Amino acid sequence: MARSCEKEKKRERILKKSWELFKKNGYEETKIERITKEVGISKGSFYTYFKTKEDVLFSILEKIEIEIENSINDIDTSEEPSKVLYNLLEKRVELFLGYVQNMKLENLYIMKSGQIDEFKNKITIFYTTYIKENIIKNYGNKKIWNLEIISKYINSSIEGYFLEEIFENKGVDKDFENRAKIAIKEIARFIDSALK
């Protein structure tokens, strides 16, 4: 039992340090040798836990996916849909900032690369389904809409806005959080008025 716990701790250290290095140096530029040096393990020990650097990335993304789903599912969906929408936007920005904190702008492009398409698709489906089931349907609007299309549109608009904001300002600057708070209020107000 203690050995199993120790192995899990070492695996977590590898994941944590790898994510730091991926954010700082980029995925392609981060070599396994650098990861093992930073963690203080041999290459052989690394291969006990992961077959490739890509396995490390996928394990990190799987962990992030679980964190996102757990965090979003903690939102109280019994509130008014406009409040659920606002809380979703706020939580998404908070999560996003946590993941890209200390990341160089050029390393944000990993999110736009083919390396993580499966991850992006899963997260998109999760957010789209969440918006449809916990926000749009709760407005009780009698208009006949294709909820799937509207949910996808809302999700991609939110994502696109914040990514554009980051690239336009060449990264997450010190004022990003303040601009994000203003944007969240405006976006939530706009979507709320459209769905009523």
Automatic annotation (TrEMBL):
Residues 31-50 bind DNA. Gene3D superfamilies: Tetracycline Repressor, domain 2. Keywords: DNA-binding. InterPro entries: Homeodomain-like_sf, HTH-type_Tx_Regulator, HTH_TetR. Pfam families: TetR_N (PF00440). The keyword Cell membrane does not apply. The keyword DNA-binding applies. GO terms for molecular function: DNA binding. Residues 8-68 form the HTH tetR-type domain. Coiled coil: none annotated. SUPFAM superfamilies: Homeodomain-like. This is TetR/AcrR family transcriptional regulator. The lineage of its organism: Bacteria, Fusobacteriati, Fusobacteriota, Fusobacteriia, Fusobacteriales.
